[in-house]
Amino acid sequence: MGKKFFPIIFLGLMLVLAACGGNESESEQSTEDKGEINIGLNNWAENVAVSNMWKVVLEEEGYTVHLTQVEKGALYTALENDDLDLGLEVWLPYTDEVFYEQYKEDLAWHKTWFSGTELGLAVPTYMENIETMEDLKANADQFDGKIVGIDAGASLMGLTEEAIGEYGLDGYELQSSSGPVMTAELGKAMEDEAPILVTLWKPHWVFAEYDVKFLEDTKKVYGEKEDISWVSRQSFEEDHPELTETLNSWQMDDESLGSLMNMIKEEEDAEAGAKKWVEENRALIDEWIKPLQ
Predict the structure, then answer these.
(1) Can you name the residues that pair with 121 across neighbouring β-strands?
(2) What is the CATH number of the domain that holds 181?
(3) Residue 169, in any domain of the structure
(4) Predicted local confidence at residue 11, as pLDDT
(5) Looking at residue 2, what is its pLDDT?
(6) What number is the average pLDDT over the span 129-135?
(7) Is the distance from CB of 240 to CB of 232 less than 8 angstroms?
(8) Do residue 208 and residue 231 come from a single domain?
């Protein structure tokens, strides 16, 4: 009996093992590593937000994603040298114009994902006597002659240096720091209802948190409203056509981007906040990533 049925039992076991092996292969294939994506990250609130959001989304899709913190100038150099794959925040036609002109033939410039930005100098709304850039000239003492800036290499800082010259703000010193340092100083000043003058941009979570206002830029040093797009190394689309199509279908507005930034701020951990936002906005994410499916 045992000898007679051994081949049948053995064949059955082999089929079971083969089936199990097939399931493992299918599982492994579904989570197959699609390669590494290196994203250049600068320390602006919305850049931190969208970079971490895409890290979460792409890692779910099987990519290995690295975020490298760089200043704006270094970002474009790294993309040109193929040391980075992506930069997710390009402000055009004004803020990043200098970088576009320098690298327009060496990098790949892609579609807009956010429309209608704004940037300039801002103060709390309780400073009722300061409404325009011209108002600053006679009120330097209120601010101790200090403009709280962000990263030294940011285009916003260069534009602010131009504004100091255009508006004759010789009594002011532009102090470089970082996005988080600037917002921390803004928050502390507003708790005390103290004067403060900062470089700021929109979209930014501070507009949901605090009552602040941009100063009217009558000379248009900071330009008109802009759009945010993304940039990649030259051969990125050839290497990752589906991912390029995915990123070109990505669209956000004040509500979606603001909620992402706020969730990251509340979580106090960028990746954890981004992951929570992705879970709560799965339908939107699924629309973006259809080319990857």
Answers:
(1) 199
(2) 3.40.190.100
(3) yes
(4) 39
(5) 40
(6) 97
(7) no
(8) no
State which residues form the domain around 164. Answer: 118-214
Torsion of CA 80, 117, 210, 186, to 10 degrees: 40
Closest CA to 133 of 143, 141, 122: 122
> Which DSSP letter does residue 269 get?
S
- The number of CA neighbours under 13 Å toward the Cβ of 141 is 1
Confidence tier at 280 by pLDDT (50, 70, 90) = very high
Q: How many helices (H) and strands (E) does the chain have?
A: 12, 10
Same domain for 133 and 111: no
State the DSSP H helix or E strand holding residue 162, giving kind and residue range, or none if neither: helix 155-166
Closest CA to 156 of 266, 46, 24, 29: 46
Q: What is the pLDDT of residue 32?
A: 67
| 56 and 144, same domain (yes or no) | no
CA 15 from centroid of its chain's CA atoms: 51
How does 250-277 read in b/e, with b if 16+ C-beta sit within 10 Å? Answer: bebeeeebbbbbbbbbeeeebbebbbbb
Give domain status of residue 127, yes or no: yes
Question: Residue 100: which CATH number?
Answer: 3.40.190.10
Please state, in angstroms and rounded to a whole number, the distance separating the CA atoms of residues 139 and 135: 7
CA distances from 207 to 88, 124, 246, 252 (A): 22, 10, 29, 17
Amino acid at 8: I
* pLDDT, the chain, mean: 89
Structure tokens at 94: 């004004």
Report the amino acid identity of residue 260.
L
d(CA 125, CA 56): 37
* One domain, residues 233 and 151: no
pLDDT, tens only, 27-53:
333 456 889 999 999 888 899 999 999
Structural domain count, the chain: 2
